[in-house]
UniProtKB/TrEMBL annotation:
CC cofactor: FAD
Record-linked PANTHER family: GLYCEROL-3-PHOSPHATE DEHYDROGENASE, GLYCEROL-3-PHOSPHATE DEHYDROGENASE, MITOCHONDRIAL
Family annotation (InterPro entries): FAD-dep_OxRdtase, FAD/NAD-bd_sf, G3P_DH_FAD-dep
Lineage of producing organism: Archaea, Methanobacteriati, Methanobacteriota, Stenosarchaea group, Halobacteria
Organism: Halorubrum rubrum
A Gene Ontology BP annotation from the UniProt entry: glycerol-3-phosphate metabolic process
Protein name: Glycerol-3-phosphate dehydrogenase
Family: Belongs to the FAD-dependent glycerol-3-phosphate dehydrogenase family.
Gene Ontology molecular function: any one: glycerol-3-phosphate dehydrogenase (quinone) activity
Amino acid sequence: MSLSPDVLVIGGGATGAGTARDLAMRGLDVTLIDRGGLCSGTSGRSHGLLHSGARYAEADPDGAAECLEENRILRRIAGACVGETGGLFVGLAADDEDYFEEKYAACTEVGIPAERMDPDVARELVPELAEDTERAFRVPDGVVYPSRLVAANALAAEEHGADVHPHAPAESVTVEGGSITAVDVGGEVDGTIRPEYVVNAAGAWAGEVASMARLDVDMQPTRGVMVSVEYDGLGPVLNRCRDPDDGDIVVPHDSEAVLGTTSVPVNDPDDYEQARWEIETSIEECAAMLPPVADAPVVREWWGVRPLYAPDETERGGRGISRGFFRLDHAPDGVDNAVSVVGGKLTTYRLMAEDTADLVCDRLGVDAECRTAERTLPAAADPDRLDEAVAAFDGQGPTDADVVETAD
Ligand SMILES: Cc1cc2nc3c(=O)[nH]c(=O)nc-3n(C[C@H](O)[C@H](O)[C@H](O)COP(=O)(O)OP(=O)(O)OC[C@H]3O[C@@H](n4cnc5c(N)ncnc54)[C@H](O)[C@@H]3O)c2cc1C
């Protein structure tokens, strides 16, 4: 392995693996490390909705447009890392009709192909949809299998010469003369890496990693729970069409439905309460859209922490805020060869990576275009090979544990 790469990427979730892929494809010598298996942070513990942008259309049209564009790109390049299920927004009797109309109009405005449908037609798609469904429209939501997606990005990075190291935590950082000169890495690397440039893609842990270089990245993570229940052949994603709230989304897998989620601030992304009420609320609220899930056997429950950047949270306040991302160049903070990339969504990881890689290339004087939107991910058409890569990177998260087949 190279102990003096051009770029060290800290954090092997979707953002870090995507950034490693992008930079390696532009010809840089890249090392990617994660303290656990790849995808062991938030990426592998998300709800797994490939957003069409509709959820954000009225509150954050720019963020919605980013989701739409990235959704289209991933459906083109990511093969078996995504599922093209489509999605429905449903308005129940208790929900505000004006909000439904506002959401529909906003989707049209953003360019999201939204197709109104009669509740009876919606029930042909989802026969067990709630009796009191009064309104519905269809959008191009989908499903993303994050373990496969992260593994495919890491494979691509490796194919372009990158070193990828799971179980290799960044433990300390040396800053000399306004630059990071060394990063001590434990675990399976157990050595000192002297990169030209450092990308901090540590998600909810980005504040901790930044503090090793005496930098401030003020994170305000929020936790959420997902509950996967037995449910055969749901078809589309179901979204409750109301002001964003707990238990608004049901994500279909072949023989499961993933119910969620909640949003509660936490102080420590490694040590937070997992409250029973969040599980119960998620089941109850999702059952308002799809009644049989109330009594369906629970297959697994898991929690994740959103890597939200605190200044954004404070400015916008609470739920319904943009899940937009932040690229924090640390040169103005006195460290001229580091960037942190935080916030965002799984759906927009490639765009986050592109934006970050643009800055790194600019700083290192590399003149190379981003090609990640055009190139198909390795093994995209070969689920077995993808699943072997998931196992090789120790990258299995709970979100797609029923989909990915790793030999145990
Ligand atoms: C409950 C919930 C539901 C969500 N649902 C969706 C959804 O349906 N659709 C969607 O698009 N988005 C969703 N998101 C958001 C999305 O999951 C995240 O924004 C995204 O996965 C973040 O990816 P990341 O790579 O930035 O962070 P992570 O995936 O957290 O990656 C950061 C990595 O850094 C590593 N790390 C930390 N410290 C160190 C260190 N010292 N050294 C080395 N490595 C380190 C961690 O182990 C981790 O793997 C959801 C989030 C939550 C919490």
